From TrEMBL:
Belongs to the aldehyde dehydrogenase family. SUPFAM superfamilies: ALDH-like. Keywords: NAD, Oxidoreductase. This is Aldehyde dehydrogenase domain-containing protein. It comes from Ficus carica. It holds the Pfam family Aldedh. It comes from the Eukaryota. GO terms for molecular function: oxidoreductase activity, acting on the aldehyde or oxo group of donors, NAD or NADP as acceptor. InterPro entries: Ald_DH/histidinol_DH, Ald_DH_C, Ald_DH_CS_GLU, Ald_DH_N, Aldehyde_DH_dom. Residues 1-378 form the Aldehyde dehydrogenase domain. The active site is at E181.
Length: 408
């Protein structure tokens, strides 16, 4: 695994290029963040490989008993197209460390880096048959993984609709366990005491990072009435200055949407928002006549029952709303069928504690957003951050890292 990580670092530029060509991801971000991060995941779990222990149990009768943690067997990994490198190794690294074999199906939109990672795995000395990459479409290759009786577990990241189908297939085949990380419509709550400049930066990054193709994107933005007008002015100003274009240009902040279908889906939601009566503050249009580029789009005067507030759009579109009280903010943040992530921006520790404990979300970021770390499970722990995104996870939740889901 350490040699595998070395090989990834030796091929960073090629891997970042493949993800940019396949998914429209920023080359600079892939080269400096996502691909190096993939290598770090490998090294992290390589270090955990010889630290997996059972427990000796204290029995009430004169018996000796102990537990063992053993590989669950063959794991099927179904990977989405928005983070093809990060999610490849978030899934495969712990499975490799505990001794599982696996079948990896990358998204049909982004197969190239996965195939290259399979090549590097062979060069690193991972035995044939341990890490297998099978390209294909969801209804065929993905369905086969979900329903095959010789696959012992499925790990899937993607849409809620497909996640339901995978659970059904797993239940109807061999009752294999399923690990799902699905859609989101995450709220960011910005309170009156927040620094408007910092808060508007977080909000813009929250819905525009990776061109909005992020499951935990902050696409419902609630701002307390005392700073609402100043915040709106600042956010619109920054959105208009956000550079969209060629993902190989180092000045660009986000590239094209992944494909024509996603591009058209986002534009259809924008048109629906207009028809429902929301006010378009900025954006809302394609950029140029070639490629799938969309401007950062901000709606206001929206209602909770509008589709642009209810549905996951998976693009650079945000619904901006005003609130008065802490209680109102909590109620509106929880008025969703999703529960993936949330953000809070405040200088008041009491507000931060109250709201973070009241929002039903797997991850709550305070004074930061999209802050990730290998030592903190994604979507299952409160992350308390400074504005510089330094944070620490809840120590009890770190058992998820020490005991990977791929083990019994």
């Amino acid at each position: 695994m350490m040699k595998y990580a070395d090989l990834i670092e030796q091929n960073i530029e090629e891997l970042a290029t493949l993800d940019s060509l396949d998914a429209g991801k920023l080359f600079s971000s892939g080269k400096t963040l996502e691909i190096p991060g993939a290598a770090r995941y490998l090294r992290y779990y390589a270090g955990a490989a010889d630290k997996i222990h059972g427990e000796v149990l204290k029995m009430s009768r004169p018996l000796q008993a102990y537990t063992l943690l053993e590989p669950i067997g063959v794991v099927g990994h179904i990977i989405p197209w928005n983070y093809p490198s990060s999610l490849f190794f978030i899934k495969t690294s712990p499975a490799l460390a505990v001794g599982c074999t696996m079948v990896v199906k990358p998204a049909e939109q982004t197969p190239l880096s996965a195939l290259f990672y399979a090549h590097l795995a062979k060069l690193a000395g991972i035995p044939d048959g341990v890490l297998n990459v099978v390209t294909g479409f969801g209804p065929t290759a993905g369905a086969a993984i979900s329903s095959h009786v010789d696959i012992d577990m499925v790990s899937f990241t993607g849409s809620t609709e497909v996640g339901r189908e995978i659970m059904k297939a797993a239940a109807l085949s061999n009752l294999k366990p399923v690990a799902l990380e699905l859609g989101g419509k995450s709220p960011i709550l910005i309170f009156d005491d927040a620094d408007v400049d910092m808060a508007s930066d977080l909000a813009l990054q929250g819905f525009c990072t990776n061109k909005g193709e992020v499951c935990s994107a902050g696409t419902r933005l609630y701002v307390q009435e005392g700073i609402y007008d100043a915040f709106v002015k600042k956010l619109v100003e920054k959105a208009k200055a956000w550079i969209v274009g060629d993902p190989f240009d180092p000045q660009v902040r986000h590239g094209p949407q992944v494909d024509k279908a996603q591009f058209e889906k986002i534009l259809s939601y924008i048109e629906h928002g207009k028809r429902e009566g929301a006010t378009l503050l900025t954006g809302g249009k394609p950029i140029g006549n070639k490629g799938y580029y969309i401007e950062p789009t901000i709606f206001t005067d929206v209602k909770e029952d509008m589709l642009i507030v209810k549905d996951e759009i998976f693009g650079p579109v945000v619904a901006l709303m005003k609130f008065k009280t802490v209680e109102e903010a909590i109620q509106r943040a929880n008025d969703t069928r999703y529960g993936l992530s949330a953000g809070i921006v405040t200088k008041d520790l009491n507000v931060a504690n109250t709201v973070s404990r009241s929002i039903r979300a797997g991850t709550v970021w305070i004074n930061c957003y999209l802050a990730m770390d290998r030592d903190c499970p994604f979507e299952s722990v409160l992350s308390v951050c400074t504005s510089h995104a330094k944070f620490s996870g809840h120590p009890k939740e770190r058992e998820h890292i020490k005991r990977p889901e791929y083990m019994l």
